[in-house]
Fold this protein.
Amino acid sequence: MNTPHIDINCDLGEGKSVADCERDATMMPFISRCNIACGGHAGNNTTMRLSVGHAKRNRLAIGAHPGYPDRENFGRISLAMERTALLASIREQIRALAGIAAEQQIELTHIKLHGALYNDAEADTQLAEDLVALIVREFPSLQILGLANAAMERAAQKFRQPFLREGFMDRRYLNDHQLSPRTQPGALIDDFDQCLDQVMALIHGSPFRSIDDELLLFHVDSICLHGDTPGAHSIARNLHQHLQLSGIQIRA
């Protein structure tokens, strides 16, 4: 019998200093995959280099976390960029991190879009396909980590690019399996026990409740743990402990 397992991913390297990277490193023993900001919405050569080094020592799967090149708004606002310019920025962001990883004899394993670009790609089929086409052409070895049941997954299937279905422990879902907008009352789950219930449902493919109290049923490959959530370190440690006690391995 196969041992139950789940991948836990976290967006890291989004600070500016050595201290920020050291703080990120305290999360790493409790996760299996990290998505490192690569100079678009956040991150610089120092944070990328330190983040890759810490992730290597913790034996994590390391991926690129590109977003809109908008540091002022942390990539959380949609930019009306010309498509060619946007794709060029994403390409250069990934190349920057890949080059730093190569210095440390590490290969990137995946890519996860950040913030507004993550959301925009799920709302725009053509944008999703353009981004996946870029990855297939320029970075064919990278898996795509993205929202389960949405446009990036369908685009990856179209281009036959490996895709990791991402679920969220601290966000409510709509009846169509999409995430509830953060502006919707009740969209964020701040009770740890409720987060755990949703994690276990997503791991086992068992029913859980939508924001409208409808039963949902689907499975994911990876659970996102937000590194900038207040108390993120304690959440990561408690989740790790609970999964271990439940006989569930955390691995990429």
Notes: The CA atoms of residues 66 and 126 lie 18 Å apart. The radius of gyration is 17 Å. The helical segments are 18-25, 45-57, 83-103, 115-123, 125-138, 151-159, 192-204, 232-245. The beta strands are 5-12, 33-37, 61-65, 110-111, 143-147, 163-168, 208-209, 215-216, 222-224, 249-250.
